[in-house]
Design a protein that fits this description.
The chain is α/β, with parallel strands linked by helices. The protein is 52% helix and 12% strand. The protein has a single domain, classed as Rossmann fold.
Length: 131
């Protein structure tokens, strides 16, 4: 079971050559088990990046997300109350980026490794990462 960080989700759908070989292998393996997850906060992040002009998609962001939701092996994990609170009470020291904290809390809740290139997440010792 894996959880894709926002950039990993975008790259996997739109530009898979940006992913590392290890990330691609992890996704392929998890795909066979329908065990690829994305936090709903990542949908918020993608929409925000598009609105700010920092990300361009080939279609409207709503359509891009709907197409991702339609993939049978991709599961979205909502930001429920448990994850929201866990994102505030994570152990150790971690930067304050709310989306990263929610993604980490989601990964810890699922017991999933996080596919990410983000060095801050990769250095956080309380979550497993793949890159």
């Amino acid at each position: 079971m894996i959880l894709l960080d926002t950039h990993a989700w975008v790259w996997w759908v739109s530009n898979p050559q940006e992913l590392s070989p290890a990330a691609n292998r992890a996704i392929d393996t998890a795909r066979e088990e329908s065990a690829v997850y994305v936090s709903s906060i990542s949908a918020w992040e993608v929409a925000l990046l598009v609105a700010k002009g920092r990300l361009q998609l080939t279609m409207a962001v709503e359509d891009w997300i709907v197409r991702s939701e339609a993939l049978p092996f991709l599961n979205f994990i909502p930001v429920d109350n448990r994850i929201a609170v866990r994102s505030i009470t994570l152990p150790g020291t971690l930067h304050s980026d709310p989306a990263d904290r929610i993604i980490i809390a989601s990964g810890r809740t699922l017991g999933a490794s996080i596919v990410t290139k983000d060095e801050k997440i990769k250095r956080y010792p309380y979550v497993k990462t793949v890159w």
